[in-house]
Amino acid sequence: MKTLFKQMTICGVGLIGGSLAMVAREKKLVGRIVGLGRTQPNLDVATERGMLDAATREPAEAARGADLVVLAVPIRSMPETLAAMLPYLPDNAIVTDVGSVKGWVVSELEPMLRPGMALVAVHPVAGKETTGAAAATRDLFVERRVIVTPSARTTPEALAKVEELWRATGARVERMEPGVHDEILARASHLPQVVASALAAALAEEQVAGRPVVEFGAGGLRDTTRIAASSPEMWRDICLTNREAILAAMRLFGREFAEFERLVEAGDADGLVALFERGRAMRERLR
User: Fold this and answer.
1) The domain over range 5-176 is classified in CATH as 3.30.70.100
2) pLDDT digits 0-9 by tens, 143-152
């Protein structure tokens, strides 16, 4: 495949950033890959796994020569990370991200760009509960959805190159308005995380007759709380930057939960079956 960028600098070489680096190196999509990170041990893992040509904790060093910057840090850290790199970036640099919220990212980052720079906001819907460079895999994005949200500072050339990069990972790329993205993902991604974490937190210290209830959980408890193991820092930022959409999703869930509670209290067998059937029908559509 053709080389799309001379140098890709990945800020945050974790699950997403590291997986992208692995594919880009394997398929020679970029000439050079530089990793910017906060902790040396994670950068060492990324280097040992062959993801990077260079690793640094200094933004200036990471920025020099980068015609593509991938912000793979927690969302609220993105403006600070980009600000530290801006004075050293080429005038035609393309900035992209992998955050789960797009409206906030676009509104915060676009005003920071110098003339000649472009922003292409992206959300690869391919996360796992594991984190860090050790969790990265070459096939993470295969047949997974990658949502691109063009905005005022997205140029046609930048958009084409970033989309080609993601298609090369095996992902299914589609475009969406930032606000529409945030409303959809609040319900399809952010709400499940809140529910899983709330369930895990509710049961964390719960005991019955001196026995910790979580010790008796089997597949159901493990499956429904799996994503509760995800990064608290990442999910804190998602909740704070997509607050209104997430609150609407939580209210939607709250109404259904309240209906379950009402039916159980009333002993309404038919009503319970109907709700369980509706839930099962939705689950069947995910297969």
Assistant:
1) no
2) 999 999 999 9
